[in-house]
Amino acid sequence: MTKLQVMIPDEVNDKVEQVLRVGNISLDEFTTLALIQRLSSTIPDPYLEARAKRGSVKRFREILSQSPDIPPDDYDKLDDPKKS
What we know:
By secondary structure, this protein is mostly helical. It has 4 helices and no strands.
């Protein structure tokens, strides 16, 4: 394990402390998760990159065409922004 010491603005610290209380997690957990999230959005994952290369729009459309063309149940409908 590596010990990390950082300086952050008081306002940021206040928000972090709120999240820690609500989520009932430690600062170590929160910081680790935040760093992992940032790393995963910055550094490509070789496994996901390989899976993406195997993807095919044609195959996706073929599979999608097999699903029935029926309206969704009421609980599963999206709000129509045009009606708002």
